[in-house]
Every structure is written in structure tokens, then in C-alpha cells.
Amino acid sequence: MHFPEYYIKNDGMQRKNAEDTLNMYIKKMVWKSNEIILDVGCGPGDVTSDILYPLLKNKINQLVGADKSKEMVEYATKTYGCSMIDFKVLDIENVNDCSFYSNQFNKIFSFFCLHWVHNKVDSLCSMHLMLKSGGEILLNFLFINPLAESYKFMDTEWQKYIKDVKQMSHDLDARDEIKEIVIKAGFRIINLESSVKKFTFSDLSTLLNTLKAVDEMYSFLPEHLHDRYAAHVKEKICQTQMVEICPITGKAIFIYIPITVHAIKD
Ligand SMILES: C[S@@+](CC[C@H](N)C(=O)[O-])C[C@H]1O[C@@H](n2cnc3c(N)ncnc32)[C@H](O)[C@@H]1O
């Protein structure tokens, strides 16, 4: 995910998801004044700045958006950086990066990022380390990464590229596995919920653009293969149960299972 402009044009579903999650959970969190907040996997920064910040601005001193992609952080800084919002390059899987921020934050948020993170145990331990005592996390991510799912069914021609991408994501087998790693990282779970959701796109190509904006395969594939690969993704995604097309309107419904974890460092 290194193309911030393309991502931002195609992130309506992610924005809606962050908005719904925050509207549900912000009031359940305990707030003091002058808090310092981290948003892990902030991407191009629009969710951090347009959705998270307006809800927090009276409670906080500083909001830091962090992402492992330098391109995303540069775009976010240029577009949304201000005295209250700062953006940093940070890989949540890199314990050394994270230990620099030990006991720094009152809250850590993360939207649509953790399904790309391979080592969720280390990442959660790092979040625990970066939080002050009494700090809270609110994580929202996908139970099944739709692209990782479609990679499983792709033709052999694409498998040699997929091998590199696959290392970036690891689906969890069950809700209990998530529960276990959150607790293992030292958190007390306040709420952990998952449910099937649907997002309606105006048509199938708009849905496919959203997937393309997060598909790491484009970083590995030679450019002359991009169009053929996109056609293959279309074919495979349509064979899964994640997409339904309305035969009358042509609208494309994406079916996904987000997980929300609200937990505290006692
Ligand atoms: C789908 S985008 C989500 C962006 C934004 N949070 C939103 O809701 O629109 C996922 C982001 O997570 C970032 N990411 C993936 N793995 C990460 C890691 N290990 N550490 C930090 N960021 C990561 C990617 O670079 C990408 O920008």
C-alpha cells in the first residue's frame, strides 16, 4: 500500500467502518484531558484527520498517525500535518521502533490494518508497551483478509508473486485465538465483537478499485502484467462468497467480517 492518492479515492468503505466503530466506542472509553493518541496503520491520514480528530479534539494534546509505508506518511504529513496532528513512520511489528515510544500514549486506535500484520502477538505486545498505564486500545480489522483469501484460489502463474505477499498477512482461525493473543499481550478485554457486514458499491469496478488500492501484489508484479492480473482478481473475487452483484442495479455488495477489540492496560 504505497499509493496514497489512489487509496484515498477508493476508501469509502474503510471511512464508513472507522466512523461507525468510533461512534459506537468513543463514549465507552475513559477520557482525561490532554491525552496523547496513536493511530496505527493510518495510511494516507484521511481517517486520522477527518474522522478520528474531530471526535477527539477537545480531549487531546496530540494525535500521532503511524504507518510503515514512507509514501503514506509523507502524503499524510503534507496533506494533514498540523500542530495537533503529526505523522511518523512506524512498523508495529518492529519491537525496536515501538520501544522508542514506551509509555507514551493514552489511547491507541487502529483501523483496517491488523489483517495485514503477520505477527499479531508482537504487535499487540508493542501496543501494550507504548501505552501508559490505564491506557486503552480500540482495534478494528478484518477477520478474513479478502485479498489473502482470493490469493489461495489464483492460477499457478500468479503463485510465485503471491508467495512474497502472503508473508504479510495471516488470518486468525477463530475469535478465541484473537482473544488469547490480546490477553497474552497483557490487556484486559472490555469488549470483543465481530459480525457480518455489507457495504454497497455503485458497481463492481468501484469495489475492485477498493481492493486494488490495498493489493500488495502490484508492488511485486511487473507493470505489463497489471491488467491481466486485475482481470484474474475480478474472476476469482466473483467466485467467492464475499461479493454479490444485484442483477437489476449492477450494484456490488461486499460482505466482510470486521472484528473490534476494546481493551485496557491495567
Ligand atoms: C487499509 S490501510 C488502512 C488505512 C486507514 N487506517 C484507514 O482506515 O483507511 C492499512 C495501512 O496499514 C499499514 N500497515 C500495514 N502493516 C503495518 C505495520 N506492520 N505497521 C504499521 N502500518 C502497517 C499499511 O501501510 C496501510 O497504509
Automatic annotation (TrEMBL):
GO aspect biological process, one term: methylation
Enzyme Commission number, as recorded: 2.1.1.103
Biological pathway: Phospholipid metabolism; phosphatidylcholine biosynthesis; Lipid metabolism
Name of the protein: phosphoethanolamine N-methyltransferase
Keywords for the protein's UniProt record, in alphabetical order: Methyltransferase, Transferase
Reaction equation(s) it catalyzes: N-methylethanolamine phosphate + S-adenosyl-L-methionine = N,N-dimethylethanolamine phosphate + S-adenosyl-L-homocysteine + H(+); N,N-dimethylethanolamine phosphate + S-adenosyl-L-methionine = phosphocholine + S-adenosyl-L-homocysteine + H(+)
Domain named Methyltransferase: residues: 32-140
Keyword Acetylation appears in the UniProt entry: no
Superkingdom field: Eukaryota
EC top class named in words: transferase
One of the record's GO molecular function terms: phosphoethanolamine N-methyltransferase activity
Entries under SUPFAM superfamilies matching the protein: S-adenosyl-L-methionine-dependent methyltransferases
Keyword S-adenosyl-L-methionine recorded: no
